[in-house]
Amino acid sequence: MNGSWAMALALVAATLLGGCRLPGYDGPVSQSVATSRQFARRGVAALERGDPLEAEQWLAKAVKSCPGDSEPRRHYAEALWQRGQREQALAQLREAVKRADEDPVLHRRLAEMCLEMGQVDTARESIERAIDLNPKSAESWAVRGRVLRSTGRLREALADFHRALGLAPDDRQVLLDVAELHRQLQQPHRALQALQSLAETYNPGEEPQQVLYLTGLAQLALARYDDAAESLAVAAQRGPAQPELLYRWAEAQWLCGQPDQAAATATQALQAAPDHQPSRELIQRIELARASSAATLR
Fold it and tell me: Are 144 and 132 in contact (CB under 8 A)?
């Protein structure tokens, strides 16, 4: 569950403590609404503790008891989504949007789901509606950036991410998005700036592997080979070292004059993935350089 949705979930959980309300109606509730209220509370609590199966069961009952209320339906959609029932989740969320068309959070979540399902046009329409309803939402600008990025409109996406950062400067995911886009645009200096800002949001020694890996790539692109080797060495210790990470570390070691270490690291990459061609080619380059050096010394 992403951070923005988890926060929205907590807020709605508090709302549901006050009951299931039909849109535009604040009077006494019927027995069916009261029953839906009870089911919805249990479903939201199950979602919060990470049990989407139980949440799905309770929220299905809540929706059946109070079909006109968007709140149980939106969380029913989330439970279905977490259970891998993507089409059913989208159907429920669309129904929730019909009942609460002025809710920007619903439109944003619909955009996120549609984007993940590859329904880019619908995602774009949904996020535009969310921004129209609340143009000061950092989360919505970030989602629109991801929609634009998925269509290859990288510079427009970057502008949206920067707008999101203007509203939420310490948003870690957006800082990571910005860094990755700068890397794709072959702007390693700007990528490194974004990654440094991102690293500052963590306590020293707690930076995630992905942040360190991308930092190493940016340093490689800037010919800061010693720094890159150091960043990638730490990255390899922060989680499972994938072959590509090991290869990049080996490449940095090779470029900063550590051929023995580079060969050992590239060999480690090949042990993890015997068909990793870049690592194999790097080892061949190292062996050729060694042979050439030995021939010169004779």
Answer: no
